[in-house]
UniProtKB/TrEMBL annotation:
Family: Belongs to the TRAFAC class translation factor GTPase superfamily. Classic translation factor GTPase family. IF-2 subfamily.
GO molecular function: GTP binding; GTPase activity; translation initiation factor activity
Name of the protein described by the UniProt record: Probable translation initiation factor IF-2
Organism: Halorubrum saccharovorum DSM 1137
Coiled-coil spans in chain: none
């Protein structure tokens, strides 16, 4: 192995670009590529599979006086095109995040949005250093665009009004970062990038501030990551699967980012699979054709080998069960079993805790599956099964086996419902939730569970005897018996028809009869609420003998109902019903302390 200090052994840092869905991630990548191409040699920019490699010379050409290339011995930057929104940011490389450094794109007018918060969580969890690209500065009212200029030079050309409006938005973002626990400032004011996050105002449309972004990324990588960029250029290649794709003529292939060593055509590799690690042999290494040859029929050209860091498509037998986010290891001169164990160990770090009962979770990559599992754990939602891949018939079958109705659900993040599973889902008692934002997906599920529980409570509530205390009004006896008809005022609770009523003598409850009718202003009603005066018919008693005018009567609440009301439905009943219930329970419990418990 040669000495690690010579530049050949330093690999390109891997940069991931994250951010909310329409804040300009794609246009920023396009701008960086486009400016790089127009910097002269289209040949200098190499399009990798799932990544764009921008060499140092091109970067220093774009950054002008901001960069002195002799300060750097890193070869450039490798920008990853993130598949799916943030699934990528949790892709791993040997336990850490695959990206060495990240750009968090935030729309300067829009500030933090749900996916921004999510991306921040991931960056915090993986400890990935990042810079914030405050995009769309050109939409500031009255902005005077300076194509491709460094941002401070561009700011000199702006009116005071435009500059102060932009500053207001920038400080809003700095405040939001501080709320998220990160100390941040405009990048030219940051002394120590390890303690503070640099914010780079830019426009993906006009290219203003793009030179600054590249400068900050190069500077950060050079200062803080040089040790990590030291690799064994001849060692056995290691990488991470970005996506599994079917390609005509090749079958299932894996788009892979190689972050260490070298991968050669014909190498034996171990790839993380949905069931077991896959041991296979590379048939072809494919890279996109150079930009100038794009007209040719074939999209890819075969290469003999790739060294880190690079994006490459690997064609090999048996890759159809490979998993996005899983490790790829070249075996080279080690026992294959050792490499299989290594891959298993790395996958085991991502194991999701499953329970006897719970929901089924499907996600597009291992990283997003892990993020889902973390978020569900926080929300206290148990998981029955969690897997990478689209929703298939067997997922529906598994979800149907859940014991609790609310667990008969599938939560799919960034995945599709396979055609052969559609009819299964229609006929199954399983609810499907899909979304591209993890926390929204979980919120949708939680809302569904709450509604389901509320509906169940309402059915219980309909059947439960409601507590009530009411008084027979003086001079309001309309009939003495068969049935007795009297005017009453409801003191608290709800008087319902067809309920047993009675009175307390001391702590002893005596049943007087059953309500057989309630009339309010001459109309028959089913119930009367606290404060209302109604006339009621009671089968059983005689006024003047069993009950008297001025008596306080109670609805008789069966013990089982009292228990449900007190323990499960207390929040669902009104304050005056709670009052009637507690007075009723208090009196009952003077005789029997455990009544209704």
């Amino acid at each position: 192995m040669t000495d690690h200090t010579n530049a050949d052994t330093l690999r390109t840092p891997i940069v991931a670009v994250l951010g909310h869905v329409d804040h300009g991630k794609t246009s920023l990548l396009d701008k960086i590529r486009g400016s790089a191409v127009s910097e002269g040699e289209a040949g200098a920019i190499t399009q990798h599979i799932g990544a764009t490699d921008i060499p140092l010379d091109t970067i220093s050409g774009m950054a002008g006086e901001l960069i002195d290339p002799t300060d750097f011995d890193l070869p450039g930057l490798l920008f990853i095109d993130t598949p799916g929104h943030h699934s990528f940011s949790t892709l791993r490389a040997r336990g850490g995040a695959l990206a060495d450094i990240a750009v968090l794109v935030v729309d300067v007018n829009d500030g933090f949005q749900p996916q921004t918060e999510e991306a921040i969580d991931i960056l915090r969890r993986t400890g990935t250093p990042f810079v914030v690209a405050a995009n769309k500065v050109d939409t500031t009212p009255g902005w005077n665009p300076q194509e491709g200029e460094p941002i401070q030079r561009s700011l000199e050309a702006q009116s005071e009004r435009a500059e102060s409006m932009l500053n207001e938005n920038l400080y809003e973002i700095i405040g939001q970062l501080s709320d998220a626990g990160f100390s941040a400032d405009l990048y030219w004011r940051v002394q120590d990038f390890q303690k503070n996050i640099g914010v780079v105002p830019l426009s993906a449309i006009t290219g203003e501030g793009v030179p600054d972004l590249l400068t900050v990324l190069m500077g950060l990588s050079q200062r803080f990551m040089k040790e990590e960029m030291a690799i064994d250029v001849y060692g056995a290649g290691e990488g991470t699967v970005l996506e599994v794709k079917d390609e005509r003529g090749f079958g299932a292939t894996i788009d892979t980012v190689v972050y260490d060593g070298v991968v050669r055509n014909g190498d034996q590799v171990v790839v993380g699979g949905q069931d077991e690690p896959i041991v296979t042999e590379i048939r072809a290494l494919l890279q996109p054709r150079p930009l100038e040859e794009i007209r040719t029929e074939k999209k890819f050209e075969k290469v003999g080998e790739v060294g880190a860091a690079a994006g490459v498509k690997i064609a090999a037998p048996d890759l159809d069960r490979a998993m996005a986010g899983a490790p790829v290891r070249v075996v080279r001169d080690r026992p294959v079993d050792d490499v299989v164990e290594e891959v298993k160990a790395e996958l085991a770090e991502i194991e999701v805790d499953t329970a006897e009962d719970g929901v089924v979770v499907k996600a597009d990559t291992l990283g997003s599956l892990e993020a889902m599992a973390n978020a569900l754990r926080e929300a206290e939602v148990p998981i029955l099964r969690a897997e990478v891949g689209d929703i298939a018939p067997r997922d529906i079958a598994v979800a149907e086996t859940a014991n609790q109705d609310e667990h008969k659900a599938i939560l799919g993040f960034n995945v599709d419902l396979l055609a052969n599973a559609e009819t299964e889902l229609e006929n199954a008692d399983v609810k499907l939730f899909t979304d591209e934002v993890i926390y929204q997906l979980i919120e949708e599920y939680e809302t569904y569970v709450e509604e389901k529980q509320r509906a169940q409570q309402e059915t219980v509530l309909d059947k439960v005897v409601r507590p009530a205390r009411f008084r027979i009004l003086p001079d309001h006896t309309f009939r003495q018996n068969d049935p007795a008809v009297v005017g009453v005022e409801v003191i608290s609770g709800t008087v319902q028809n067809n309920r047993n009523v009675g009175y307390f003598e001391g702590n002893e409850f005596t049943r007087a009869g059953q309500l057989s009718g309630i009339q309010k202003q001459g109309d028959d009603v089913d119930e009367a609420r606290a404060g209302e005066r109604v006339s009621i018919a009671i089968d059983g008693p005689t006024v003047g003998r069993d009950i008297e005018e001025g008596d306080t009567l109670w609805t008789e609440v069966p013990e089982k109902h009292a228990k449900i009301l007190e323990q499960e439905l207390k929040e669902e009943i009104t304050a005056d019903e709670r009052e009637a219930l507690s007075a009723y329970l208090e009196t009952k419990r003077k005789r029997d302390p455990f009544w209704g418990k």
